[in-house]
Amino acid sequence: MKQPTNSAPSVSATVRLTETAVMIALGTVLSIIKFIDLPYGGSVTVAHMVPVLLIAYRYGPKWGCFSGLTYGLLQLLLGMKNLSYATSIWAGLAIVFLDYLVAYFFLAAGAWFRRLPQPAAVSLGAGCACVLRYLCHVISGATVWAGLSVPTTEALGFSLVYNATYMIPETIVTVAAALYLSSVLDFSREHLEPRRKGEKAHGFGWRVAAGLVAAVTLFVDVRTVFSRLQDADAGTFSAAGFASVPWGFVGAVTLVGAVTIGILWRISCTARINNSKNNNS
Fold first, then answer.
1. Distance between CA 23 and CA 67 in Å, rounded?
2. 144: CB partners within 8 A, 6+ apart
3. Rounded to two decimals, what is the model's pTM?
C-alpha cells in the first residue's frame, strides 16, 4: 500500500499554474449550476469547491491559500451586485472579506490533512472548509446583513439557521464528491491515475460510471428533500416541509441508484480481477 505523503508532485511552475487555472475555471462553472437558490443569497451547487480543494491537497497549504483567494476573487466578481446593498464602506469591505475572500481562503483546508490516507485527507479537508465558510457567512449575516436581508432582532439566530439551509446540503454534496474522487484517483502523483496500482482502464471506467450514478442519485435526493424544507419567504428551514416530501419517490430513487451502483462496482471489481489474471498468465 502506498504510504501517505506530505510532499507535492514534482511538476514545473507552468504545469502547476495551468492545472490550477483549469480547476478554478471548472469550479467557477460549477458554481453557476445551482439546484437550490435562496432568496437572500446562498445556494447549493454541483460541488463547486471540490476542484480547488483538490488543487490544495495536490500542492500544499501555501498553494491552497493562493488558489482559494484567487477563487474567492472570481466569486466576488460574480456577486458584485451584493456590494450595492452595503450601507457603508466598512460594510462593503466586510462583505468582500467575510462572504468571499476569507470564506474561500479556507479551501486551503484541502491540504491540512495530507499526512492521512488520501480519501480521509481530502474529505476531512472538504468538511473543515465547509464549516469555516459557514461560520464566515454566519458572522456576515449577523453583522453586515442585519437589518437588510436578516432581521435586526435575533440576527445571530436567524443567520445561523438561514446559512445552514444551504450550507448543510452543500457540505453533504462537497464531502461526498471529494471522498469519491479521492478514492478512485491518485492526486499525489505527477500525472493523475487510478489509485489502485495496475488497475486497467476498463475496470476504472465502471468505477467512474458508478460515481456518476451516485452523483445523480445524491443530486436528485438532496434537491427533492431540501426544496420542500425551505420556507419560500424567509429562505430558512421549515420542519413542516417534511410532511410534503415525496418520500416514496426519494426512496425509489435511492434504491435504484444503490442497486445500479452495486452492479457497476461489482462489474469493475470483476474486470480488475480478470485483468490481473491475464497479466499474471
1. 9
2. 86, 91, 94, 95, 98
3. 0.74
